[in-house]
Amino acid sequence: MQELHDAPLAPLTTLRLGGPAARLVTATTDDEVISVVREADDTGTPLLIVGGGSNLVIGDKGFDGTALVVATRGFTLDGTRLELAAGEVWTDAVARTVEAGLAGIECLAGIPGSAGATPIQNVGAYGQEVSSTITEVVAYDRTARETVTLANEDCAFSYRHSRFKADPERYVVLRVRFALEDAGGLSGPVRYAETARTLGVEPGDRVPLDTAREAVLKLRAGKGMVLDPEDHDTWSAGSFFTNPILTADAFEAFRARVREHLGPAAEPPAYPAGEGRTKTSAAWLIDKAGFTKGYGTGPARISTKHTLALTNRGGATTEDLLALAREVVAGVHRTFGITLVNEPVTVGVHL
Fold first, then answer.
1. Which residues are catalytic?
2. b (16+ CB within 10 A) / e for 35-66
3. Measured distance CA(200)–CA(212) in Å, rounded
4. What is the pLDDT of residues 129-185, one digit of tens each?
5. How many other C-beta atoms can be found within 10 angstroms of the C-beta atom of residue 124?
6. How far is it, in rounded angstroms, from Cα 124 to Cα 72?
7. Coil, helix or strand for 2?
8. Does the global pTM surpass 0.85?
């Protein structure tokens, strides 16, 4: 277990932003993770859990407490059952399941970050969500002061949300268990229209696993969503805003604003979201409100490849990024009456 003081946090995040931590501890076993968490709780020390750093926006003043880097390792396959230690690199784990001929998370290729973060956000992309394959999450419960195992139905998964995100101070994810599918080397049914078009198949079709993974990696790279140190479009936290989910009344009011702004024939993107709700596209809202790819003049700008990513062009501060985020939120609300919600976790700052 490594311990540093007044340690920089920016290099541990994909945004490369944020001030230092008063104390930075790197834990490589579950027992070490639990020990550091218990010590922080016993002494009343603020605690920040750091995985892959792909979903963190840390304030310029840093973090006055203990930042715990979860660097545990463990990839165990038993038939179609997969267990990952929280510190496993997610995109590497996906590649290994594809090599093993197992379907279920192949369309989540290229997503930066650690395995332990995936249930917190209910990570999803290109027609797959981890909640569809997660069977159990092993976590340290800081309230009960014990390790617990939560079944899928106890995780309260929903769109980019979970029990862990709803109560962020309670659980520290240690291990994640999945049930994958042996489909004879084929992917799960292709559910996302853009992926199907790229693959030249119909939604619901299956393709070779590696073909699906490579198609997703190509799509993500085209949007600056595959990490590349030389490409500032990838110096981001991925999608900065979640797609809004609206009630029937709210969606009709939104449609009226769209027609008022874009013309009587204009229609916004609309996807069923269950229980009389409709999901629309945050990227579309941002673009149509006037914040196009590459928007901005300072060191924090919208990606040149994707309007959902706010990027550090080099030399930005967290406040630069937040100023841009606030401008986008205000502009979208002014134009369409919808308030965008940030997807990344903010530390010491807020929108």
1. 160, 239, 343
2. ebbeebeeeeeebbbbbbbbbbbbbbebbebb
3. 11
4. 999 999 999 999 999 999 999 999 999 999 999 999 999 999 999 999 999 999 999
5. 18
6. 23
7. strand
8. yes
